[in-house]
Design brief:
Blueprint (H helix, E strand, L loop, with lengths): L3 H15 L4 H8 L3 H8 L7 H11 L3 H19 L2 E7 L2 E7 L1
Antiparallel strand pairs: 1-2
Helix pairs in contact: 1-5, 2-4
Organism: Nocardioides panacihumi
Protein name: Helix-turn-helix transcriptional regulator
InterPro entries: Cro/C1-type_HTH, Lambda_DNA-bd_dom_sf
Length: 100
């Protein structure tokens, strides 16, 4: 199962690290507790839209860019877990099975 909050946390952590920022710096800039940001990055807490906007502001990244990255990560995980059709021969007729 794809967990949006885990993928969002991965993207936010990558954005923070790409900018060379610590959790403490993001916490001060976003005015959000360090522990709460840590839980969001680890996918343990859901970020509200207001909190997400504050984190994006602190990271100087557009919300749409973060959501685009998360959307791509969701698509990759969905594709990886999708059943793969397997053609099966059955008495002269083609039958498609699914491997899950």
């Amino acid at each position: 199962m794809v967990l949006f909050r885990r993928l969002l946390g991965d993207v936010l952590r990558a954005q923070r690290m790409d900018r060379g920022m610590t959790l403490r710096e993001v916490s001060a800039e976003a005015r959000v507790s360090l522990g709460y940001i840590s839980e969001i990055e680890r996918g343990q807490k859901e970020a509200s839209s207001e909190l997400l906007a504050s984190l994006c502001g602190a990271l100087d990244v557009r919300l749409s860019d973060v959501l685009r990255e998360v959307s791509h990560a969701v698509a990759v995980e969905e594709a990886a877990t999708a059943p793969t059709p397997i053609p099966v021969r059955n008495a002269g007729a083609d039958v498609v099975a699914s491997a899950a």
